[in-house]
């Protein structure tokens, strides 16, 4: 496959950028490296992303979106009872983050640098996750299994109370053997707190 | 006051070590610097702390003990109802950590390096905090206000569920204006979860 014969899409640029970041590290990776990997001029890359900062923000968003897209299906699964859905959603979030940290530690370290420099992208990601949680809490309140309250602020509290299991600053602790049991204990307590 | 005329106690060495660490930073501070600050030979320092690593561990422990000692009074205050004691204890823990981070950011950064290299000391500190929490939970279960359960594992879950408000990796978020309200929302949820 000759890369130049394919249409240069934003998605192809982002894929190449991730690979370049993995290989060169976030401090050294340049737009010229990305263009070279794709066999195009750096001008072609700039037609899709006006600046290097914009490209880095977009690749960060893509990485974070992979997690939130996978979780949306669970959040909106009306077949499952809200309490069960909530538990599954947090387990899935934990597993997704732990797998990202464990499967490719170098890429994870790269994205830690990128998330640090892209506070707005991270803020939008967290807002999306809290919005998904809010939908589960709303469903629980609507059906009367959860005590009444403001779904959005309850969702935020749930997200904060589980930081140990999804905030990357805790990644080192995610390989502890008891971590799954700890997550379940925290979820037990929170679900009891939610119950009507 | 001439420092050499005073008895050289472990406490005086630890005070001087903290000051030296603050001034030189954790990478550069040496035992010779500490001895010089006290006007004694480095041999005199080594009579109290056999190695530099031992001295750094001891100064880390002293820093962490300041927080846990202040909290013990709240944990064991039998005059206050367990639910109230629990809420006060977590607020105090949050305020102590936030003040340490905010009042002297350089010293806080120094201690972040020291805690990273003294995992055992940090482990003992967390065990002490969870033991205090366990005593509050026990009191709540004994009086029937909290649902029955294993106090130690409930205490661990409470500690994990509040990581956002005391783990130093979240320090950057402790100046957000809504953080106190968020802590209260999390505590509301947890206390509902504990209730009999």
> pLDDT under 50 segments of chain A (min length 5)?
none
Oligomer: homodimer
Output the structural class of chain A.
mainly alpha
Count of separate DSSP helical elements of chain A: 9
Order of helices and strands of chain A: HHHHHHHHH
- What is the 3D form of chain A? elongated
Give the CATH level 1 class of the largest domain in chain A. Answer: Mainly Alpha
Query: What's the structural domain tally of chain A?
Result: 2
For the residues shown, what is the average pLDDT of chain A?
Answer: 93
Name of the CATH homologous superfamily of the largest domain in chain A: Tetracycline Repressor, domain 2
Evaluate the radius of gyration of chain A: 20 Å
End-to-end C-alpha gap of chain A:
59 Å
Would you write up a description of this structure?
Chains A, B: Keywords: DNA-binding, Transcription, Transcription regulation. Chains A, B: Residues 7-67 form the HTH tetR-type domain. Chains A, B: It comes from Streptomyces thermoviolaceus subsp. thermoviolaceus. Chains A, B: Residues 30-49 bind DNA. Chains A, B: This is TetR/AcrR family transcriptional regulator. The structure is a homodimer of 196-residue chains. By secondary structure, chain A is an all-alpha fold. Chain A folds into 2 domains: 3-48, Homeodomain-like (Arc Repressor Mutant, subunit A), CATH 1.10.10.60; 59-194, Orthogonal Bundle (Tetracycline Repressor, domain 2), CATH 1.10.357. Chain A has helices at 10-24, 31-38, 42-48, 52-75, 82-103, 105-117, 119-142, 151-161, 179-194. In chain A, helix 5 (82-103) packs antiparallel against helix 9. The longest helix of chain A has 24 residues, at 52-75. The N and C termini of chain A lie far apart (59 Å). In chain A, 34% of the residues are buried. The model of chain A has no long low-confidence stretch (mean pLDDT 93).
């Amino acid at each position: 496959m000759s890369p130049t014969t394919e249409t240069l899409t934003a998605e192809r640029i982002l894929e190449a950028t991730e690979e370049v970041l993995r290989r060169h590290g976030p401090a050294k990776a340049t737009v010229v490296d990305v263009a070279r990997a794709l066999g195009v001029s750096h001008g072609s890359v700039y037609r899709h992303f006006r600046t290097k900062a914009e490209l880095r923000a977009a690749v960060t968003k893509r990485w974070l979106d992979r997690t939130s897209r996978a979780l949306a299906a669970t959040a909106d699964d009306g077949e499952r009872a809200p309490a069960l859905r909530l538990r599954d959603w947090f387990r899935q979030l934990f597993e997704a983050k732990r797998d990202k940290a464990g499967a490719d530690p170098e890429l994870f370290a790269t994205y830690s640098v990128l998330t640090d420099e892209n506070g707005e992208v991270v803020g939008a990601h967290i807002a999306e996750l809290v919005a998904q949680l809010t939908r589960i809490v709303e469903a629980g309140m609507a059906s009367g299994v959860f005590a009444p309250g403001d779904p959005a602020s309850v969702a935020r509290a749930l997200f904060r109370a589980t930081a140990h299991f999804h905030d990357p600053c805790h990644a080192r602790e995610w390989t502890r053997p008891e971590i799954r049991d700890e997550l379940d204990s925290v979820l037990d307590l929170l679900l009891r707190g939610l119950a009507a």
